Amino acid sequence: MQVTNASNVREVDPASGRIQRSNSLVEDVYEAIFAQLMSLKIAPGSRITVDSLVKELEVSHTPIREALGRLEGEGLVLKTHLIGYRAAPQITRRRFDELYELRLLLEPHAAAKAAASMDEAKLAVLEESAGGMARRDGKDERLRYSNFARQDAIFHDRIMEFANNELVRETLAFQHTHFHIFRLMFHSRVTEEALDEHQAILAAFAASDPAAAEQAMRRHIEHSRDRLLPAFD
Ligand SMILES: [Zn+2]
Q1: Which of 12, 22, 75, 212 could cysteine-pair with 176, CB 3.0–4.6 Å?
Q2: Chosen CATH of 93-232 out of 1.10.10.10, 1.20.120.530, 2.60.120.260, 1.10.357.10
């Protein structure tokens, strides 16, 4: 049931009877499904039925459809006419190799450019986006993993922003690289090691050292590739 007032749409949660702001409900539903996709609880390529999510998450169809629409825009969910939704299939080995080749061509160079024009304000932005990737805490592991994937995407995107080439930035953003690669494997090693590599990149930025930033970024992407390669065995 939806109740509209002057400023926003409110939805009554049939399970708890609580009235929630509709946009925060969609956000919560989105996060829940996103975490299931990233942690492979929803297997790549598998069907996603709105009715089963309605039961599981105890919300109505509307926020689920909205959340699925957003995930479709991010390449994580596919919608087929008459069939419905399914999780995007896992990327192929070939696609994986292509993605990493693309990243290695673009990101180390961009990191060098970002380092060359680094200032305190930009450094603070980068440190903050890296800081959001907390190490293990008590939180739900699935949620932690999906948060890390998103934060990693933001951290790399910010570096591309400061490299000052919108075309490069868009090209990488359009691939939704981080969502696809993190879905290859649900493993804490993937995140723990990346944090140290991010620190090395940040140190190079703090020193405004383009050569060090280029090298640290290249090493991070190569290590990321090596960590995820066993997923294809
Ligand atoms: Zn990273």
Answers
A1: 75
A2: 1.20.120.530
